[in-house]
Amino acid sequence: MSTVQQEAHLPALDEHRRGEAAHELQATLVELVDLSLIGKQLHWNIAGRPFKPLHEQLDELVDSWRDLSDTVAERAVALGIAADGRAGTVDSGSGIDPVLPGALSTDAALHELVPRLADVAERIRSRMDRLGEIDLASQDVLVEVVRELEKQLWMLRVSLPTA
Ligand SMILES: [Fe+2]
């Protein structure tokens, strides 16, 4: 470990590994922030029955995605790499298609949300696997994210209307 690293009290990981881990965390951060924005968009604009359970469930999901994004961002900073949660970075980096504007039925909202959440969970699972070779403490953060997103997917999937 370099003297600079010791003086900065950075984790005892070489610079390359810290950069690689932070890269995986950053990619996850922008997805979680984007999901939290999508969640609020749907929370506000769903219409029809059953309105209230989904309206409230969406807020719980937003809270979870915001909490997870905080944990992910802070792990990157703990590695000595700045987190970037700026709107433009999220917009250009999340890879999640925007949802339709305007009011939409509860069924349509679920059909908008579930595939996006499934794609994100799959991508984070791949990063979680890669982090096993790089930094177990960062992997542990993504393990928590994957466990939570996959639980959310289960609960949303079973409420999906059959098309
Ligand atoms: Fe609200």
Summarize the structure.
The protein contains six helices and two strands, in the order H-H-E-H-H-E-H-H.
Describe this structure in words.
- The protein has 163 residues and is mostly helical.
- Helix content is 73%, strand content 2%.
- Helix 2 packs across helix 4 (87-93).
- The longest helix has 31 residues, at 15-45.
- Bound molecules: fe (ii) ion.
- Fe (ii) ion is lined by residues 43, 59.
The overall pLDDT, averaged over residues, is 94
Number of helices: 6
Strand order of the largest sheet: 1-2
Q: Strand-residue fraction?
A: under 5%
The proportion of residues forming helix, as a percent range, comes to over 70%
Please render the helix and strand layout as text.
Blueprint: H1 3-7, H2 15-45, E1 46-47, H3 51-78, H4 87-93, E2 104-105, H5 106-131, H6 136-157
Parallel strand pairs: 1-2
Helix pairs in contact: 2-3, 2-4, 2-5, 3-6, 5-6
Keyword list:
about 75% helix; about 160 residues; 6 helices; mainly alpha
